[in-house]
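Annotators were shown the component list below and the corresponding predicted structure, then asked to write short factual statements about the assembly.
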Amino acid sequence: MSLFKSIFSPITRGSASLFLLGAICVNFAVLQVNATVSGDEEDRRNARVQASYITRLVKCIRWEENSTERQKNFKIVVVGDETAGLVNSLSFLVEQTNLSNETHFIEVFHFPNSKSEEAIDFITAGTNFVYFTQDSILTVKDVTPYKKGALLLSQGREFIELDRGCIAFEKKKNRIKLIMNVRCFDRRISRVNPVLTSLKSVVEVVNPYL
Amino acid sequence: MTTLLLRIFVFCFCILVGATGRASSDSNSSTSLSSFEKAELRRLLDLGISGLSQVPVQGVLGYEQEYWRNPASVHVIRPEDITLNGYLNSVEALRGVPGMHVSRGLAYDNFASMRNFSGFTPQKFLGKIGGREVSQLMLGSANYSVDDYPVAVIDRIEIVRGPGASIWGTNAVNGVLNLVTKHSADTQGDSLRLAIQDNGTFMGDYVHGGQVSEDSYYRFWVRDQEYAEGTLDSGLPARDDGYLRKAGFRFDKELNSDLNFYIAGGGATRRLEHTLDLSARLLYQNSILPEYPEFIPLSYIQSVEPFLFASPLLSDGSENLLEGVSLNLPSTPPSWSSIASGNINFGDSQITRFEQYGELTNDSGHVVARLDGITDSDLEWSLTGAVEHTEISLGHIGFDWDQTQFDLGFDANRPLGDFHRLSFGMAARRTNLDVRSTVIEPFAFSSLINPTYLVPPSNPFDPTSSSSSVPVLSYNQEFTEIDRFTAYIQDSISLTDKIEVSVGTKFEENDLAGTGFQPGIRASWLANDSNVLWAGYSKAHRQPSLRERYTTLTPAKVWIPNPLLPGGGIWSNIQFEGDESLDREEIDSFELGWRSRPNENLLLEISSYYYDTKNAVLASQTSVNAYEAKDAKSYGGELSIDYRVSDLWRIRGGYSIARGEVEDSRVYDFPENTASLSSHFKYSDEVTLIQNLFYSGETKIPSDYNPITIPSHLRLDLGIVWQIKGDWEIGLFGRDLLESYHVETMYPGVDVEPARVERTFILTLLKKF
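Structure shown to annotators:
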């Protein structure tokens, strides 16, 4: 114990405050010269939370008996480039979900901007969710003619209010909330579980046509 | 060598705090997932939609305990860790937490301690349950059985090892235990849990949750626990059978999309008996037999007296100095004869056993309300108020107190630019006490009020110098209103994408701990995608308990032989006074840790600590006071492993090493080595096989006059859980299978005979929501 005593006594007897002060000064000094990519970690967590939401939403959407979307595996298509790990997060979650014997077998497909034409072809063949990344060159207008019953998802309020998408993730007050376009579910192909829309603090239901 | 180690510590800390240049250059822009991220995704997968909406995008160090870059040693217990292992209550689940020591006192309670110098009363870690600070001021401990919740309403239990004073506050010395309950919306429907042991102990709880309106939910719950009688180490019945009955509620309302309110409350009543071992509390003061201690149990000296007179020589051949001399032995008081029950071993001989039983009661109720929200400027805030009233009676020693506490606290945090998140808050607490002492019957015979009356010029013949009303514990009634005010500020800084730092301090004005600041700084460094190094320095305070400061303990009566006195002597008392001058304990803590996740299925964590404590309050062996302040040091570390071998098999293990020194002498109030190994194997989709192995090293429980040694022990638990249908589960568990029983104990100070923890079998039935 004399070893530890001799080690720490210089720190604990009088110099602890100086040590702490020094550390704080180093922190702030370095902070000024390191305006780096703290946002990356936020973006990545944002992507992980969105991916988790999407996996959950699979179970909250009820497809009508005769719709082609109900008959097949649940297909999630991500269009556009992305660097925050959303596709990999989604794939990992889907893998875990499929392992746990959920009711739907889910598949994830990613088409970066360089494969936009292939994406359109794939969507035309039938899919359930189409997620537009922030960097996607494809837009709602590009996809709508081919999407059949697919629900369109992306990030940001304008995706609902301007682009007329179906579900948007909005980062607000350090949390991720959902905005849902009521018109997307007001039809016979798919309906949203009413429990979801009752979560007022989580889901904001809007009608962009009003 | 010492210089080298010092440099290593400072170097590591500086790396974490300041060496940011390199780390910032290679931001994590890869789309591939790190093993930490995969593990987090698994956790997110368990959350519902409402749960996901509560996940912060930018974490706040010190709040979000499961964040892998958290610069602290953290262990989180989930409800399934309780049900799958067959634990009756949440404190039992702490056995598997490295750095924690759980001991089962008698049939009804488990007590927990963390790292060093932390007996069970006081515990020296902060206990928060359901938003309330539950550590009692009187004994400095929490009663987790009384404050426990049904497992169905528990969201998680966070165990933060090491000081966290800048946010958590006073008494978060060795760590924090924070039990978080679920939102009422997450407990909709009905849940039931029944557990019965082969010895007759039963516990059942029922939870019902419902929806009042679109944005308001409620739940209520009841629990009944019936304790079977345990057995003391001597084999005598512990007479600790009784019951604990509880009920509680919670109502949540979403006032608007950014404003939430909840109110929760509960009440508990417990009735059982408890015992105080008086066998060595009727003493004889020895001043003429050097080979015997100063104080000898009266029945022992009575038993050897015929031998002493039988021969002019003692058995060792030495001369019998007492030959022909009257020992002036008093007769045993009648009240003691009535509680005599056989004999127990004392050295090479036996002495009469005296056991004092009395009713131990606990009635308590509380209400806690909280309003929280987020403003447009991203300020997250909460306002919490709580009122709690507790009535406790320790009938076996004749000590009762009523305690009423009022708490009001405000906490907030908000981002400052892209790299800072500022946390701040303040809180106030008032505690009102009504403390009463009564004299238990064995002590109700005339004796000197104060042993100093034997010393001239005091006169032991003065009628006012003696009394038959000297209680075992008495409280200084001047201290029945205690206030505390705290305020804190902390900045969580993202120095780079690799380095997180939190720096802050807490200010406290406390009637028991004085005025002071408790600063702390912690940093973590994401060395690569699968390794995190962290370090921290904290200064923390612990307030002495009321027991340590303001109570006088009279644990024994002693016969003082004196030929000049009528009867050949006089009864006096052995007394230990509380010490009003006991100052707060001040701890400088240094911690280093490494968290590694080679892949998403394997987590390794190592944490180490060094505490330098000034004014550590310890049971006194030399002073007239029950406790005294000494400088102490402790160091050690914990290793934990969480390995998902496959989708069917999960193994978790832990090991802790702890060393404590008081003024360069080793102490053993905490086991120097503990270990645990847990295996959960899914035999099929419905059946899970459970195995738990626990090892605890020997402990020596400090005591005012009678330290207790608890031998090391190894415990094996096996269980099987069968998911019979939907949300129904049946479990069968065998505990302590390696031996018929081992001994554990709880209270230092006013000690009781250690109790046997016997091999038991438990059948459980669980209906989840």
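Statements collected:
1. Confidence is low (pLDDT under 50) at residues 1-29 of chain B.
2. The radius of gyration of chain B is 28 Å.
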